[in-house]
Design goal:
153 residues; alpha+beta; two-stranded antiparallel sheet; 6 helices; 50% helix
Amino acid sequence: MIRIRGKRHNFRRCGIAHPKDPVDYPNDRFTEKEIEILKAESMLIVELIPDEPARESRERSETEQDVFPKSEPEVEEEAKIDIEEKAEEEAEEEAEEIEIGEPPIVLAARQAIEAGKVTRDGRPLVEAIEEILGRDINAAERDRAFEQLTSDK
């Protein structure tokens, strides 16, 4: 299995928009060359995950749980998994809150304006937005973001 998630939501590479949330693909979904491209892309996190045996073989039956109490390492491992799952859920909720709001370029434009990184006419500097986003943009993109900011007021 191949697990891919974008560092920026819906970052596109190899003809696919990669969301921030991990997406699992079957091993034969991408060619070897595409996998190399995806792994080399700094905006993506790509994991090659070995196929796992069926979960039933690793889980204890209810009878086993009653007869043999869980060992301390098993209890600690379950607690660790619970903590990790809770952290992931909180991160997902936070990401959803951000995505529901303004697009990232508009947020970056707002931050640039608040930091005073603006042109003479008050528009955010392209370079300031690029620095915040971590990617290149052009003046037209900046203008659209600025237009959204000023039309929202």
